[in-house]
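no rush on this but wanted to send it before i forget. what follows is a protein written twice so to speak, once as letters and once as structure tokens for the fold. mainly i need to know what kind of three dimensional shape the backbone takes. thanks a lot i owe you, the record is right below.
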Amino acid sequence: MAHALVFTVKRREPELITPSKPTPHETKLLSDIDDQDSLRWQVPGIQFYKYDPNMAGKDPVDIIRKALAKTLVFYYPFAGRLREGPGRKLMVDCTGEGVLFIEADADVSLKEFGEDLHPPFPCIDELLYDVPGSSDMLNTPLLLIQVTRLKCGGFIFAFRMNHTMSDGSGMLQFLNALGEISRGMSKPSISPVWSRELLNARDPPIVTCTHREYDPEPDNKGTMFPLDDMVHRTFFIGPTEVAAIRSLLPTHQLQKYSNFEVIAAYFWRCRTIALQLDSNEEVRMICLVDARNKSVYKQLPKGYYGNAIAFPVAVTTAGKLIENPLEYALNLVKKAKANVNKEYMHSVADLMVIKGRPPLTTAGLYLVSDITRAGLGDVEFGWGKALYGGMAKGGDVAIPGQAVFHIPFKNAKGEEGLVIPFFLPAQVMERLVKEFHSLLMCMHTKSDPKSGFINSSL
């Protein structure tokens, strides 16, 4: 992508979109899984849509604005405001005040963004404007949407959602409903279900599982590096790269691990090497697990749009991670994921109440979220599927430099794969690139030093 791309976005004043019909004015408690310190942030997403001659004369801004008002009738808690009660307990005051909506126009065409649509995006703060005061957790709109028309007839749909309200699956459900109503449906095909009490703490609460993801933060170990001199770089992982990583495993173990586990564990190890930590320093990796998986929690109803994610953590030392072969890291990751079941979810909810909603431990942390199957690119407003649909930012959100996303991607050669945007200090990034490139060279891939990368340094 041409990150030197500069363009002008003209925005109208932000407006509040309220439900098109009267909705219940009530107070709804969030679950004790929703109500975690680590979910108190705004999740930014973005979708790019090309011009469709079948939609000539139709305005995406007008269509989406009207559909949003209708969708909020079904998802009326989003039109409310978060309040905090005793014990910092979060609840939604369903006031019907509405969500923020921004109409915008940009003097740029879709093709000027290039073929490689992935984070980081140029001028992202113009495409998803942070309305002053709107990013607070309490007493502010729970959703912000900006629709930007492009000069080619395409448009960009960008959103920012309060994470305590929904996880990735819940956000997708809402966006699909908005898309369906934009396309003329009278109601969503999946009816939203609140039922947050299903993931509340028990009475009395009792922690029955080990949750090292919420360990007390060690002194002066909040982050492992200062957030200055940071650079972006995006790694493309296609069939060749997956084969190269799998070549590090014994043949008899190749079928034991998923591609996600293999890629995540590999980059955990490479990143640790690049950071040059003391060998006895503790490192930890979290892979998000969605409890909607029937093997985890069968009782969550279809249509549940609250948070149903767990943060199981694999813990070891930098020395052990680096000195051992890749399967050592893989087994730690697989074991951590396997710990998540219905009891684990209830134990987390209980821990939140007992320990006062502790945040995730960030010391030595590498957090990986797989959104390759999230389906944000499949959301349709009438102009077909998005050319890109996913996170609006890469490694500079959530826990900057410590959280990454696996994002679905097709490269210029037409190869299906994924991209991983990293955000790291420049010298650490150089070492990470060198580590990855040496693996590709060992596989006798192209000698082009950019093989396996998408040049996205800023």
In short: The longest helix spans residues 259-275. DSSP finds nine helices and 19 strands in the chain. Residues 445-451 have pLDDT under 50 and may be disordered.
